[in-house]
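Repro:
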Amino acid sequence: MTALQVQEFEKIQDPNVRQRLDVDGPEIKDYLNGKMEYILNHRAVQHPLLNYYRKNAFTKEQEKKFYLETWYYFKNEPFYITSMAVNTRDYKVLKEIILNVYDEVAGKVTHETLFREQLNAMGITDEEIANHQCLPSTTAINKGAEKLYCEPPIERNLGAFYADETMSAVLSTQFNDALLNQGYDKNVRKHWIMHVNVEISHSNNAFNAIAPYLVNQEGRDLFEEGINTYLQLLETYWDGVDAIVRG
């Protein structure tokens, strides 16, 4: 089961982790927390492959298949997230999008570079990354995420955003646990050790952005459509990876 609970997104002690803003009344907060519980416990997030990997070592061939697909799942996410900005003229939403993507690209090295360094340290070469042919389900989650983030309305965009970033906080703990179990040191795992707090921040970005749009049922329906569509794509993606890794 998940190593994270809703309270870990709410009660932030670390000043480097982005906090939730106050929302207009407890009902909206309770609604968003309920959707977070749904995301945290969804099969796409608690996928059998991920929970298996946390406690069972992969062979080098399994590892390579797993991480090459994951590379292409993650690679273009910041571009998709940025595209939401054209679907709104709300500066508060724009701020949360910028803060999110800034974390990904504005450090001494980008997070994409950190992930590539991890793969290289595990013996996966740049040539293997460049020449890899993705599974259809990996291509599908990329095309699906691009559509979810690029095409209006903003409420649906933000539903995908909330699902994506909440899931990513859990995924960071799953990957870190798995790599630790495989015997990899902190230098190899640093991308995921750092990402737990980063992704809690990013989930809180989404919380802050969507809250004003949930005052009516139409906004909630679109928001939930974004959540569910993203999770369906993600579940299919992990099913595809599981088929080539565990058979």
